[in-house]
What we know:
With about 260 residues, the chain is an alpha/beta fold. The chain is about 45% helix and about 25% strand.
Amino acid sequence: MKYANSPFRVCAVNYLNTVPLVWGMQHGPQREQAALTFEIPAICAEVIERDEAQIGLAPVAEVARQGLEIAPGYGIACHGAVRSILLVSRVPVRSIRTLAADLSSRTSVQLARVVLRELYGAQPEFRARPPVLENMLAECEAALLIGDPALRLDPAALPYNTLDLGAEWQALTGLPMVFALWAGKAPLGDGIGQILEGSYRFGHAHIDNIVEQQFPIRGVTRELANEYLTHYIHFEIGDLEMKGLEAFLKLAGLPQIALAQAASQ
């Protein structure tokens, strides 16, 4: 399938952690090659499913469910603490029975289920709620916040039990956690891999510009935005990250389709 005469339709996630991946498509040499739209992670996956985008930054749970083809090399991952996926509880974690979840990322919800079950023996009821911490905790014993709403919290200042699910995953498995990958329905168009790589390389080279532009927009400090994009988030997906993904899909009871397709690239 080729799209030589028109831009690729690309759907990205509207969180801070996505910006370096799409910077070239917004401001660099890839501007004319991609028609870029932004959605929350779950909707990004639905856009791909409805054929409204040829490729998107899809939650890995959806990559597995839909059997999508991966454009290997880049995505959203962490090696330990991630800072932007926080489970906050007003009761001891082992005692959580109800959990209000921002369901914008299905992968993070699955990760919370795995961590709570495997490390704490808890299997709470999940309830979909908007990401407003105090409202969530007024109804449920715990809350799951992801992305920019989690970044705007200071975990050290909260009077609650707070888990960073990236750190919890590493404690459980010793492996990186992969949250999202560039993926679409097979076959992906010729040249999309070069566009995605070029866009990230341009973003990586302009990370200081990204931090300066984005920190006030996202409602976080300059220092946190810089640390988040240069330390917490890993954008390059290699063999170790794929091993972590394999472990996650197995523990979450999801199909291993993504790995088989990635290996065939």
